[in-house]
Amino acid sequence: MAYWLFKTEPDAYSIDDLKSDVQQSTFWEGIRNYQARNFMRDQMQVGDKVFIYHSSCKVPAVVGIAQVTKAAETDPYQFDASSDYYDPKSTPDKPRWIGVTVQFVELLSSQVTLKAIKADDAIVDLSLKKAGRLSIMPVTEQEWRHIIEMSKR
DNA sequence: GCCAACGTTGGC
DNA sequence: GCCAACGTTGGC
């Protein structure tokens, strides 16, 4: 089982939206970055754990946990000309973009802020720390455990 | 709202 | 295939 971190803008779709969504789950559409896509396509499996991270907001932070409930499938929004996620270069017989389905697991008892993560020497490799703009990134098991511990402080 | 960082595009 | 220009992301 692998660990991941998904960024989302809470104004658009927050962890609370996920929690109150149908079956507490959602198709994670709109990933338009090749590195992120390749993680979903090549490595992500049902049962993988996911940190939900709120970005572009007052306090950027890891706020909760979700899990992958469905492996990658074609993201239909790439064919929808009225969608922000429309990609005119993608075709149904050769789709470029995919998404997985995730389900809410739990809220962290306290959020772990970007500030705290940046200040913590135990977290070195996390892309979040390297000014990465990656919307989906791998998390090592140690980092996962460490961030869970931080949320309990 | 600014701007640095970085990914993508397209001309050559 | 290089690289400059451009667009986007995301913290502040």
How would you describe this structure to a colleague?
The protein has 153 residues and is α+β, with helices and mostly antiparallel strands. The protein has a single domain (3-151), classed as ph1033 like domains (ph1033 like fold, Roll). Helix content is 21%, strand content 32%. The protein contains four helices and six strands; from the N terminus they run βαβαβββαβα. A six-stranded mixed sheet has the order 2-5-4-3-1-6. Strand 3 (49-54) and strand 4 form a beta hairpin. The radius of gyration is 15 Å and the shape is globular. The mean pLDDT is 92. The structure holds a DNA duplex (12 and 12 nucleotides).
The total domain count is 1
What spatial order of strands do you see in the largest sheet? 2-5-4-3-1-6
CATH superfamily: ph1033 like domains
Mean pLDDT: 92
Helical residue percent band: 10-25%
Order of helix and strand elements from N to C terminus: EHEHEEEHEH
Rounded to the nearest angstrom, the radius of gyration is 15 Å
Annotation, overall tally of beta strands: 6
Distance between the termini: 26 Å
Please give the CATH architecture.
Roll
Question: Largest sheet, if any?
Answer: 6 strands, mixed
Supply the helix-strand structural class. Answer: alpha+beta
What coarse outline follows from CA principal-axis ratios? Answer: globular
CATH level-1 class: Alpha Beta
Strand content: 25-35%
Number of helices: 4
Low-confidence stretches at least 5 residues in length (pLDDT < 50)? none
Identify the quaternary structure here. Answer: single chain
CATH overall fold name: ph1033 like fold
